[in-house]
Every structure is written in structure tokens, then in C-alpha cells.
UniProtKB/TrEMBL annotation:
The keyword Iron-sulfur does not apply. Keywords: Glycosidase, Hydrolase, Signal. Belongs to the glycosyl hydrolase 2 family. Residues 1-19 form the signal peptide. One of its GO terms (molecular function) is hydrolase activity, hydrolyzing O-glycosyl compounds. It comes from Aspergillus terreus (strain NIH 2624 / FGSC A1156). The lineage of its organism: Eukaryota, Fungi, Dikarya, Ascomycota, Pezizomycotina. This is Beta-galactosidase.
């Protein structure tokens, strides 16, 4: 079936089986449900105790925002379903075994479950729909569920979705009762890396090991309902460039051409209005715009009306391209070379795993990076909630966005069906996130993980991404297995950089001067902290893997000394060769990886960038750069403020 634009055909139950299995939805068994209480994770953060039972109250989708909505986050019921066949016998009207916090990863302490092997799960809650929503669509939205979700409303199957990183919605109007309790039941299947499963999982692993971490199963992003007209705006594509041109494509739920009006605001001042129709892109120009950049992240509010539907959105005027500067192929932001300098940002939390404990916690990481002088982050084989990218838009942080990778084993590569599914989810990534101004580049493959050896599929995938989004650059293969596709010559080398240079260590990723040279990963130097310091992930398997870090420095003084050397090498390669950016590994420690700028709990910063001249400023070595950074100073660690 195809509902809300993001649904995939799945295992629908026969109507007769559903009827036989469907009691009165208000009937409850005598089962005693274990009350919710967070479990003690191996490590906490300053926000762990602030989560409460009403998490993430913010409207979750900032680029398509409606005024009539209701947050379903909070305490739900959960129980282990036992097998895939359990979906054929839903526990309608029955209390489940445990209470669980939604959103959360079932493996996390914040969930109240903190389980292992969470392959098959039932989630249950009740919700009411206001009577005023009569004769409207009632859109039930899920920010993300890992991995497959089968949704039942009042004893009827309402839809199925596959893919652990993407928003999906179903029009629940035909299933709900207005002004009364409605039962929502969700069956989740998450195979992660078991058996012959080859699915986008990023760094998740059932048995974590060093650079692979605890998995995340279940409803890990927000759930909400909203009211919209029967024919409503299902998707909005926005792009605004440095010339003031705005390109709009409104996708309606009916798929029929409908009049649309778009109004752009600078603060409270209306600066442009244009009329077009849905189902086809149209363009208009806003005069005298202020451009979006890391130094000046100016955003414009946008109102879109289609019939009785009205949504709020926003955009930023900027152009991403590439071109030659002094004979070297460079990334260009608003027509000027911008050296991209940032961190590998994995988005893991010791208390919530994939789910940050609060929005404040999530934004804290970004503010730290901005304060340290970075202008970019590489979101590493994970996709964040939409509010993350809104924060990057507001702060002025460029985002290089990875597609979550398949399994990293060369012995377990995708078959034809699995490769087709990988492409489908890659297309979801691009279509759902391409309107965020901060995202400048898509990465398809990381270090060859899940990358087919025969046929070089990255060429066709690059073409497909550029068809869907012609306004960004594509890094087809970040590190290791580069056949020449995409806009970047991307090398990974630890600990020392080899960026845009005529020397390299892997023959599979030679430097190509016809593309942009970037150091997709480097650094990764470690500094161990102890349990006594309360900043180490207290898991013995992870602790045993610490010695697999590329380099461990005994003291913070040595760690800062080595950081100084590596950053100076990157600066030298920027001046001498064709280096256009670097990605330092990494923002924070993650479980047994102790090589972050901050510890995993965010309580200790290892590196401070303050005013001074101790480290050469890589940004000022190049003509035509447009990113004004402060000169950094390497300093000793201190407690985060």
C-alpha cells in the first residue's frame, strides 16, 4: 500500500483473521503491567535525570509544521513479541507486560527496558482525537522506528513501513473514533546484523565491538497526530539559492494539481508571495536577500497554503557547487571556496543511544562544535531527527550527511533485492532531508561497507541522487574503495592526514585531482579515562576493546601535543596540495572508543579552542576562503560548563 508517501507494501493480515482476533478494544486482561522506571545505564549524562515521562515535547517536523497537533510521546506499554509470526495474532485490548518510554531505544537505560536481542516487539498506547477534527485527515506520524513497523489502530491494520531512519505517516481518519479512546498497537521487527540480514544499520551491532556499538530497536523518534484537510500538503521541497531564486515543489496527498500560494518572510516582514500549483516545481525570486553561511546563518520563514491547508516552513539562501580556484577543484559556498573543517559526529548517547535525552542535550553538542571553531560536521552513518538539522541551520554548521551503511563484512554483501532496498532508502534520505540549508553533501558509501565489488553501483547511485537533488555535492565513496564516482576524492587515514596529496597509503583510494580533495576521516587519537573519573562506559567488553584505538596517549598533555601535530599536517597539506576539508575523529567518545573531543558523557572536554596563535589557522592559508574562524589554541581538558 502507499499511504502518506512513505509506506511500503508489507505483510497485511487477512480480513477474516483480523476479525477473529479482534475483541472490544476497551477490554483489558488482568495482566499486571510493570511500571516505568529508567534503568541505570553504564554511564549517565548531565541530562539523564531531566528526561521525565513527557520527553521531546517540541513539534518534530520544523519544515512542514501544522498548528493542530497532539504529541503521543510518553509512557507506552511494551512486551517481547517472541517471533515474527506474532504479528499474525496481535494482542488487541490486552495490557502488555511493561511500561516503556517513547521515544527511546529499547536497549537504552532511558527506555526502562535496557534489553538485548530486541528482535520482535509490541508497543501499545491509547490516544484521543479531538471532536473538532471531524471531516479531516488524522495523520499519525512516526519520526523513525527501527526497523520494520506494522501499525494497528482499533484492531485494524493501518499500514507497514520498512527503514529505521525515516519518517512515515498514515491517514488514520477511517480507523479512529473522535472524542474517545483509540488503541494504537505497533509491531516492530529489528534484525540488525543477525543471520543473513543485510539492511542499513550504520554502527549498530548485536554484539558490540570497539567501533561498532549497542543497537537501537523500536520507536526511537517522536510520535504525533495532526489534523489536515483531506487533500493536504504531504511533502514540501524547498531550495533557495544565492541569486534569491526560490524553487518550490508541493506534493499533495491526492496527487492532483491544486493551486498553491507561497509567502516568504524576513522576520515579520513579507518579502515575496508567489502562486503556483502542486505536483510540479515552480520558481520565483526574492530581491536583496541575505545569504546563509556559517558566519551568517540567516533563515527566512515560509508559509505555504494549498486550499484549506496551511503549513509553516523556512529556508536559507545559499548555493553549493564546485569549481576551480587557482587551478584546484574546490567546494564552493555562494560562489566562494569554503574550507570544510569539522568532526565525525556519530550521534550516540550513553543513556539514550540513538535518542538524545533532550533537545537541549542534542543542541549542546552542536554548540560545542561551533564554539570550538568548526564550521562543519559529518553525520556518520546515522540520520538524526529533523530538529537536529534545524539546529544546524540556525547555528551555521555545514552538514555532510552519510547514508547509513550496510554490514561491513565483504563476505556478506547485498543481493539484488537488498541492493534495491538500499537504493530505496537512500532515496528516502535525500527526499526527506534535501530542504535543510545546512546539508551540503550526501555520502553514499563509507569505507566500502556494503559496497558491491562488481558493477560499481556507486556511479548509478550518484546519478540517482543528483536527479533527486541537483543542488548538492555527492561523495560517492568516503574512504577506501574509490572508482572515480562523485564529486570528491575522499581519503581516510589514521592518525595522520593524507588530504588531497600525491602520497597515499591505499591503492584503492588514490588521489584524483579532477575532484575535490577531502580528508574524510583522520585523527582518532585516544586518551583513556577511568571508571573513577565517571566518564567511561562501564562495560567490560567495551573496556577490553579500548586498546584497539589507533593511538592511546598517556596524558592530556600528550593528547594535545599530538592533536597539534596532526592539525598542523592538515594545514600544511592545505597550503601545498589540494586539501579542501578535514573530518576529525570524533565529536565524543562512544562506548569503547575513547578518541573524542569530549568524553562520552559530555562532562570533560579534551580540547579547547580559544584566542591565540599556538596552532596555525588552516582557513587563512587559502585565497578565496570565506569562512572566518578564530585561531585555535590547544589546551588541557576541563569539565564542560
Amino acid at each position: 500500500m502507499h499511504l502518506g508517501g512513505f509506506w511500503l507494501a508489507g505483510p497485511l493480515l487477512a480480513a477474516s483473521a483480523l476479525a477473529a482476533a479482534t475483541p472490544d478494544t476497551h477490554q483489558n486482561s488482568a495482566r499486571q503491567t510493570t511500571k516505568y522506571a529508567p534503568k541505570q545505564p553504564p554511564l549517565t549524562t548531565p541530562w539523564t535525570d531531566l528526561v521525565g515521562t513527557d520527553p521531546w515535547p517540541e513539534y518534530p517536523r520544523p519544515q512542514l509544521q501544522r498548528s493542530k497537533w497532539k504529541n503521543l510521546n510518553g509512557i507506552w506499554q511494551y512486551q517481547d513479541a517472541g517471533s515474527l509470526n506474532a504479528v499474525q495474532n496481535p494482542p488487541f485490548g490486552q495490557a502488555l507486560a511493561n511500561e516503556v518510554l517513547v521515544p527511546s531505544c529499547l536497549e537504552s537505560g532511558l527506555s526502562g527496558i535496557q534489553g538485548k536481542g530486541m528482535y520482535y516487539s509490541w508497543f501499545r498506547t491509547n490516544f484521543t482525537v479531538p471532536r473538532s477534527w471531524t471531516n479531516q485527515s488524522v495523520l499519525l506520524n512516526f519520526g523513525a522506528v527501527d526497523y520494520e513497523a506494522t501499525v494497528f489502530i482499533n484492531g485494524k491494520q493501518a499500514g507497514f513501513h520498512r527503514g529505521g531512519y525515516f519518517h512515515f505517516a498514515v491517514d488514520a481518519a477511517e480507523y479512529v473514533k473522535l472524542g474517545a479512546d483509540n488503541e494504537l498497537l505497533v509491531f516492530v521487527h529489528d534484525p540488525t546484523d543477525t543471520g543473513d540480514a543485510v539492511i542499513p544499520i550504520g554502527k549498530q551491532k548485536i554484539v558490540p565491538s570497539h567501533i561498532f556499538y549497542t543497537p537501537c530497536s523500536g520507536i526511537w523518534q517522536s510520535v504525533w497526530i495532526e489534523s489536515a484537510p483531506r487533500n493536504h500538503i504531504a511533502r514540501l521541497d524547498l531550495d533557495a539559492n544565492m541569486d534569491g531564486e526560490v524553487t518550490v515543489h508541493v506534493h499533495s496527498s491526492s496527487g492532483t494539481s491544486t493551486p498553491v500560494e507561497v509567502t516568504v518572510f524576513d522576520g515579520d516582514d513579507e518579502v515575496a508571495t508567489h502562486k503556483g500549483t502542486s505536483e510540479s516545481a515552480f520558481r520565483f525570486t526574492v530581491p536583496d536577500v541575505s545569504l546563509w553561511s556559517p558566519d551568517s546563518p540567516t533563515l527566512y520563514n515560509v508559509t505555504v497554503r494549498m486550499g484549506a491547508d496551511e503549513i509553516q516552513s523556512y529556508t536559507g539562501f545559499r548555493t553549493i557547487s564546485k569549481g576551480e580556484v587557482d587551478g584546484v577543484v574546490r567546494p564552493l559556498l555562494n560562489g566562494e571556496f569554503t574550507f570544510m573543517f569539522g568532526t565525525l559526529d556519530q550521534g550516540y548517547w550513553p543513556d539514550g543511544l540513538y535518542t538524545a535525552p533532550t533537545r537541549e542535550a542534542m543542541v549542546y553538542d552542536l554548540k560545542v562544535l561551533k564554539g570550538l571553531g568548526f564550521n562543519m560536521l559529518r553525520k556518520h552513518i546515522k540520520v538524526e531527527p529533523a530538529l537536529f538539522y534545524r539546529a544546524c541551520d540556525e547555528l551555521g554548521l555545514l552538514v555532510i550527511q552519510d547514508m547509513p551503511s550496510l554490514r561491513p563484512l565483504e563476505s556478506i554483501l547485498p543481493n539484488a533485492e537488498q541492493q534495491k532496498e538500499f537504493q530505496r532508502q537512500l532515496e528516502l534520505l535525500v527526499t526527506q532531508f534535501k530542504s535543510f540549508p545546512s546539508i551540503i553533501t550526501w555520502i553514499i558509501y563509507n569505507e566500502g561497507w556494503g559496497q558491491l565489488i562488481d558493477g560499481y553501483p556507486e556511479f548509478a547511485l550518484t546519478d540517482r541522487v543528483k536527479q533527486l537533488d541537483p543542488n548538492r555535492l555527492v561523495d560517492a565513496t568516503s574512504g577506501w574503495v574509490d572508482h572515480g564516482a562523485g564529486d570528491f576524492s575522499d581519503n581516510h587515514h589514521y592518525a595522520n592526514p593524507q588530504c588531497g596529496s600525491p602520497f597515499y597509503s591505499l591503492s584503492s583510494s588514490p588521489f584524483d585531482p579532477t575532484r575535490i580533495g577531502i580528508q574524510g576521516e583522520f585523527g582518532g587519537i585516544g586518551h583513556n579515562v577511568s571508571i573513577e573519573q565517571s566518564s567511561l562506559w562501564n562495560d567490560q567488553t567495551a573496556i577490553n576493546g579500548i586498546n584497539q584505538t589507533y593511538e592511546i596517549d598517556d596524558t592530556l598533555e600528550i593528547w594535545n601535543y599530538r592533536s597539534h601535530i596532526l592539525l598542523s599536517e592538515l594545514e600544511d597539506q592545505t597550503r601545498r596540495f589540494s586539501c579542501s576539508g578535514g573530518v576529525w575523529t570524533q565529536t565524543t567518545d562512544v562506548e569503547g572508543e575513547v578518541n573524542g573531543l569530549m568524553t562520552y558523557d559530555r562532562r570533560v572536554k579534551r580540547l579547547l579552542w580559544l584566542s591565540g596563535d599556538n596552532v596555525p589557522d588552516v582557513f587563512e592559508q587559502l585565497p578565496g576562503h570565506n569562512y572566518k574562524s578564530r585561531k585555535p589554541t590547544l589546551s588541557l581538558a576541563r569539565k564542560c560548563e
